[in-house]
Amino acid sequence: MNVNKSHEEEEEQLIAQLKDDSQGPGTIHTSNGNTASLLLDAIATIFLPLTFCSGCVTVNEKEEVIVQRFGEYKKTLTEPGIHWCFPNQLQTSHISTKLNTLDLKNVKIIDSVGNPINVSAIVVYKVVNSKKAFFNVEDYDSFIEDQSQTVIRQVVSKYPYETDDDSPNLKKENKEIQEELRNVLQEKVAIAGIYVKSVMLNELSYAVEIAAAMLKKQQAKAIVDAREIILNGTIGLAVGAVQAVEGHGITMSDNQKAQLVSNILTVSLSDKEAQPTKHLT
Description:
Blueprint: H1 2-19, H2 35-45, H3 48-51, E1 56-59, E2 63-69, E3 72-77, E4 81-84, E5 90-96, E6 100-110, E7 116-127, H4 130-135, H5 140-156, H6 175-189, E8 194-206, H7 208-247, H8 254-269
Antiparallel strand pairs: 1-4, 2-3, 2-5, 6-7, 7-8
Protein backbone atom coordinates (compact mmCIF):
# COMPACT_ATOMS: atom_id res chain seq x y z
CA MET A 1 0.00 0.00 0.00
CA ASN A 2 2.81 2.39 0.91
CA VAL A 3 4.62 1.51 -2.32
CA ASN A 4 1.54 2.39 -4.41
CA LYS A 5 1.07 5.63 -2.47
CA SER A 6 4.71 6.58 -3.00
CA HIS A 7 4.39 5.85 -6.74
CA GLU A 8 1.26 8.01 -6.99
CA GLU A 9 3.01 10.88 -5.19
CA GLU A 10 5.98 10.68 -7.57
CA GLU A 11 3.58 10.65 -10.53
CA GLU A 12 1.73 13.74 -9.26
CA GLN A 13 5.02 15.53 -8.61
CA LEU A 14 6.28 14.78 -12.12
CA ILE A 15 3.05 15.98 -13.74
CA ALA A 16 3.20 19.17 -11.66
CA GLN A 17 6.74 19.82 -12.90
CA LEU A 18 5.69 19.29 -16.51
CA LYS A 19 2.77 21.70 -16.10
CA ASP A 20 4.98 24.36 -14.56
CA ASP A 21 5.92 26.81 -17.35
CA SER A 22 8.45 28.61 -15.19
CA GLN A 23 10.97 25.75 -15.21
CA GLY A 24 12.26 23.05 -17.47
CA PRO A 25 12.81 23.10 -21.24
CA GLY A 26 10.48 24.78 -23.65
CA THR A 27 9.28 27.78 -21.64
CA ILE A 28 6.83 29.98 -23.59
CA HIS A 29 5.95 33.46 -22.38
CA THR A 30 2.61 35.18 -22.87
CA SER A 31 2.71 38.08 -25.32
CA ASN A 32 1.13 41.46 -24.54
CA GLY A 33 0.97 42.37 -28.19
CA ASN A 34 2.74 45.04 -30.21
CA THR A 35 1.77 48.49 -31.49
CA ALA A 36 0.30 47.19 -34.76
CA SER A 37 -1.91 44.59 -33.09
CA LEU A 38 -3.13 47.08 -30.47
CA LEU A 39 -4.06 49.54 -33.25
CA LEU A 40 -5.98 46.88 -35.17
CA ASP A 41 -7.77 45.85 -31.98
CA ALA A 42 -8.87 49.43 -31.47
CA ILE A 43 -10.31 49.55 -34.98
CA ALA A 44 -11.95 46.11 -34.61
CA THR A 45 -13.68 47.25 -31.42
CA ILE A 46 -15.95 49.42 -33.56
CA PHE A 47 -17.33 46.31 -35.26
CA LEU A 48 -17.38 44.17 -32.09
CA PRO A 49 -21.20 43.92 -31.89
CA LEU A 50 -21.19 42.31 -35.34
CA THR A 51 -18.36 39.88 -34.57
CA PHE A 52 -19.09 39.10 -30.93
CA CYS A 53 -20.21 35.50 -31.51
CA SER A 54 -17.08 34.64 -33.48
CA GLY A 55 -15.12 35.06 -30.24
CA CYS A 56 -16.90 32.18 -28.51
CA VAL A 57 -14.65 29.17 -27.94
CA THR A 58 -15.86 25.77 -26.68
CA VAL A 59 -13.56 23.60 -24.58
CA ASN A 60 -14.51 19.92 -24.29
CA GLU A 61 -13.76 17.54 -21.42
CA LYS A 62 -10.17 16.22 -21.41
CA GLU A 63 -9.12 19.00 -23.74
CA GLU A 64 -7.23 22.29 -23.63
CA VAL A 65 -7.33 25.13 -26.15
CA ILE A 66 -4.37 27.28 -27.15
CA VAL A 67 -5.41 30.88 -27.88
CA GLN A 68 -3.35 33.01 -30.27
CA ARG A 69 -3.94 36.41 -31.79
CA PHE A 70 -1.85 37.86 -34.59
CA GLY A 71 0.34 34.72 -34.28
CA GLU A 72 1.19 35.49 -30.64
CA TYR A 73 0.40 33.20 -27.71
CA LYS A 74 -2.19 34.69 -25.35
CA LYS A 75 -3.43 32.00 -22.99
CA THR A 76 -4.51 28.39 -22.54
CA LEU A 77 -8.15 27.53 -21.84
CA THR A 78 -8.31 24.52 -19.53
CA GLU A 79 -11.82 24.61 -18.03
CA PRO A 80 -14.53 22.75 -20.00
CA GLY A 81 -17.35 24.94 -21.27
CA ILE A 82 -17.77 28.02 -23.42
CA HIS A 83 -15.28 30.91 -23.27
CA TRP A 84 -15.09 34.26 -25.01
CA CYS A 85 -11.95 35.80 -26.53
CA PHE A 86 -11.53 39.00 -28.47
CA PRO A 87 -12.34 37.84 -32.04
CA ASN A 88 -9.93 40.01 -34.05
CA GLN A 89 -7.38 37.66 -35.71
CA LEU A 90 -8.29 34.94 -33.21
CA GLN A 91 -6.63 31.54 -33.67
CA THR A 92 -7.50 28.52 -31.51
CA SER A 93 -5.92 25.05 -31.41
CA HIS A 94 -7.49 22.14 -29.55
CA ILE A 95 -5.12 19.74 -27.74
CA SER A 96 -6.39 16.44 -26.27
CA THR A 97 -5.25 15.55 -22.74
CA LYS A 98 -6.61 12.00 -22.88
CA LEU A 99 -4.39 8.96 -22.46
CA ASN A 100 -2.94 7.76 -25.78
CA THR A 101 -1.46 4.41 -26.74
CA LEU A 102 1.48 4.11 -29.09
CA ASP A 103 2.09 0.67 -30.60
CA LEU A 104 5.68 0.23 -31.81
CA LYS A 105 5.99 -2.83 -34.02
CA ASN A 106 8.97 -4.90 -35.16
CA VAL A 107 11.86 -2.73 -34.08
CA LYS A 108 15.02 -4.67 -34.98
CA ILE A 109 17.73 -4.42 -32.31
CA ILE A 110 21.04 -6.11 -31.48
CA ASP A 111 21.03 -7.27 -27.85
CA SER A 112 24.01 -7.05 -25.48
CA VAL A 113 25.51 -10.35 -26.67
CA GLY A 114 25.16 -9.60 -30.37
CA ASN A 115 21.95 -11.43 -31.23
CA PRO A 116 19.55 -9.64 -33.61
CA ILE A 117 16.05 -9.55 -32.13
CA ASN A 118 12.65 -8.13 -33.08
CA VAL A 119 10.95 -6.04 -30.41
CA SER A 120 7.53 -4.42 -30.22
CA ALA A 121 6.38 -2.19 -27.37
CA ILE A 122 3.36 -0.36 -26.02
CA VAL A 123 3.79 3.24 -24.80
CA VAL A 124 1.00 4.88 -22.79
CA TYR A 125 1.22 8.68 -22.54
CA LYS A 126 -0.75 11.91 -22.38
CA VAL A 127 -0.22 15.64 -22.85
CA VAL A 128 -0.18 17.50 -19.52
CA ASN A 129 1.16 20.83 -20.84
CA SER A 130 -0.59 21.69 -24.09
CA LYS A 131 1.40 24.91 -24.50
CA LYS A 132 4.70 23.01 -24.74
CA ALA A 133 3.13 20.29 -26.89
CA PHE A 134 1.87 22.86 -29.40
CA PHE A 135 4.81 25.27 -29.59
CA ASN A 136 7.93 23.19 -28.91
CA VAL A 137 7.45 20.38 -31.46
CA GLU A 138 5.90 20.18 -34.91
CA ASP A 139 3.73 17.14 -34.15
CA TYR A 140 3.85 15.76 -30.60
CA ASP A 141 2.46 12.35 -31.63
CA SER A 142 5.20 11.87 -34.23
CA PHE A 143 7.73 13.31 -31.79
CA ILE A 144 7.05 10.73 -29.07
CA GLU A 145 6.96 7.92 -31.65
CA ASP A 146 10.43 8.82 -32.93
CA GLN A 147 11.79 9.28 -29.42
CA SER A 148 10.27 5.96 -28.29
CA GLN A 149 12.00 4.03 -31.05
CA THR A 150 15.32 5.70 -30.18
CA VAL A 151 14.96 4.91 -26.47
CA ILE A 152 13.96 1.29 -27.07
CA ARG A 153 17.03 0.76 -29.26
CA GLN A 154 19.23 2.47 -26.69
CA VAL A 155 17.96 0.59 -23.60
CA VAL A 156 17.16 -2.83 -25.04
CA SER A 157 20.63 -3.15 -26.59
CA LYS A 158 22.10 -3.05 -23.06
CA TYR A 159 20.48 -6.36 -22.05
CA PRO A 160 20.64 -9.97 -23.31
CA TYR A 161 17.61 -11.72 -24.77
CA GLU A 162 17.76 -14.39 -22.05
CA THR A 163 20.08 -15.59 -19.29
CA ASP A 164 20.56 -18.78 -17.27
CA ASP A 165 20.21 -16.93 -13.96
CA ASP A 166 17.93 -14.27 -12.48
CA SER A 167 19.93 -11.33 -13.83
CA PRO A 168 17.91 -8.76 -15.84
CA ASN A 169 17.03 -10.00 -19.32
CA LEU A 170 14.53 -9.11 -22.01
CA LYS A 171 12.65 -12.41 -22.07
CA LYS A 172 11.53 -12.04 -18.45
CA GLU A 173 11.00 -8.30 -18.93
CA ASN A 174 12.44 -7.36 -15.59
CA LYS A 175 10.79 -4.45 -13.77
CA GLU A 176 14.16 -2.72 -13.77
CA ILE A 177 14.12 -2.63 -17.59
CA GLN A 178 10.56 -1.25 -17.71
CA GLU A 179 11.46 1.56 -15.31
CA GLU A 180 14.59 2.43 -17.27
CA LEU A 181 12.64 2.58 -20.54
CA ARG A 182 10.02 4.87 -18.99
CA ASN A 183 12.50 7.16 -17.23
CA VAL A 184 14.74 7.65 -20.27
CA LEU A 185 11.76 8.32 -22.55
CA GLN A 186 10.21 10.72 -20.04
CA GLU A 187 13.38 12.79 -19.98
CA LYS A 188 13.40 13.07 -23.77
CA VAL A 189 9.74 14.08 -24.21
CA ALA A 190 9.49 16.50 -21.26
CA ILE A 191 10.14 19.40 -23.66
CA ALA A 192 6.82 18.58 -25.36
CA GLY A 193 4.86 18.58 -22.08
CA ILE A 194 4.19 14.85 -22.37
CA TYR A 195 3.82 12.52 -19.38
CA VAL A 196 4.81 8.89 -20.02
CA LYS A 197 2.69 6.55 -17.90
CA SER A 198 4.30 3.27 -18.94
CA VAL A 199 6.50 1.55 -21.51
CA MET A 200 6.10 -2.22 -21.83
CA LEU A 201 7.64 -4.69 -24.23
CA ASN A 202 4.81 -6.39 -26.09
CA GLU A 203 6.44 -9.02 -28.33
CA LEU A 204 9.99 -10.31 -28.35
CA SER A 205 11.62 -12.82 -30.68
CA TYR A 206 14.89 -13.65 -32.38
CA ALA A 207 15.29 -12.20 -35.87
CA VAL A 208 14.49 -14.52 -38.78
CA GLU A 209 18.12 -15.00 -39.77
CA ILE A 210 19.05 -16.65 -36.45
CA ALA A 211 15.67 -17.97 -35.25
CA ALA A 212 16.31 -21.53 -36.51
CA ALA A 213 19.80 -21.66 -35.01
CA MET A 214 18.59 -20.38 -31.63
CA LEU A 215 15.76 -22.94 -31.66
CA LYS A 216 18.32 -25.71 -32.12
CA LYS A 217 20.35 -24.25 -29.27
CA GLN A 218 17.31 -24.26 -26.98
CA GLN A 219 16.46 -27.83 -27.98
CA ALA A 220 20.06 -28.97 -27.35
CA LYS A 221 20.05 -27.30 -23.93
CA ALA A 222 16.76 -28.99 -23.08
CA ILE A 223 18.18 -32.39 -24.06
CA VAL A 224 21.32 -31.84 -21.96
CA ASP A 225 19.22 -30.78 -18.95
CA ALA A 226 16.97 -33.83 -19.36
CA ARG A 227 19.98 -36.15 -19.62
CA GLU A 228 21.43 -34.67 -16.45
CA ILE A 229 18.21 -35.32 -14.54
CA ILE A 230 18.01 -38.89 -15.85
CA LEU A 231 21.68 -39.51 -15.03
CA ASN A 232 21.32 -38.32 -11.44
CA GLY A 233 18.22 -40.46 -10.96
CA THR A 234 19.83 -43.51 -12.57
CA ILE A 235 22.92 -43.33 -10.34
CA GLY A 236 20.67 -43.29 -7.30
CA LEU A 237 18.73 -46.25 -8.71
CA ALA A 238 21.92 -48.26 -9.38
CA VAL A 239 23.33 -47.62 -5.90
CA GLY A 240 19.99 -48.55 -4.37
CA ALA A 241 19.88 -51.78 -6.40
CA VAL A 242 23.34 -52.88 -5.15
CA GLN A 243 22.39 -52.09 -1.56
CA ALA A 244 19.08 -53.97 -1.91
CA VAL A 245 20.83 -57.09 -3.27
CA GLU A 246 23.37 -57.08 -0.46
CA GLY A 247 20.56 -56.44 2.03
CA HIS A 248 19.11 -59.83 1.11
CA GLY A 249 22.33 -61.58 2.08
CA ILE A 250 23.64 -62.00 -1.47
CA THR A 251 27.35 -61.36 -1.66
CA MET A 252 28.60 -59.63 -4.82
CA SER A 253 32.13 -59.09 -5.98
CA ASP A 254 33.31 -55.67 -7.12
CA ASN A 255 33.15 -56.81 -10.74
CA GLN A 256 29.55 -57.99 -10.32
CA LYS A 257 28.57 -54.68 -8.69
CA ALA A 258 30.20 -52.77 -11.50
CA GLN A 259 28.44 -54.94 -14.08
CA LEU A 260 25.04 -54.39 -12.41
CA VAL A 261 25.53 -50.62 -12.26
CA SER A 262 26.72 -50.61 -15.89
CA ASN A 263 23.64 -52.52 -17.06
CA ILE A 264 21.25 -50.18 -15.21
CA LEU A 265 22.97 -47.08 -16.62
CA THR A 266 22.96 -48.53 -20.14
CA VAL A 267 19.26 -49.32 -20.06
CA SER A 268 18.22 -46.04 -18.43
CA LEU A 269 20.31 -43.73 -20.59
CA SER A 270 19.76 -45.46 -23.93
CA ASP A 271 17.48 -43.88 -26.52
CA LYS A 272 16.19 -47.33 -27.47
CA GLU A 273 14.25 -49.93 -25.54
CA ALA A 274 16.25 -52.76 -24.00
CA GLN A 275 16.38 -55.88 -26.22
CA PRO A 276 16.63 -59.33 -24.58
CA THR A 277 19.49 -61.44 -25.83
CA LYS A 278 20.14 -65.17 -25.71
CA HIS A 279 23.54 -66.76 -25.94
CA LEU A 280 23.84 -69.47 -28.61
CA THR A 281 25.67 -72.64 -27.65
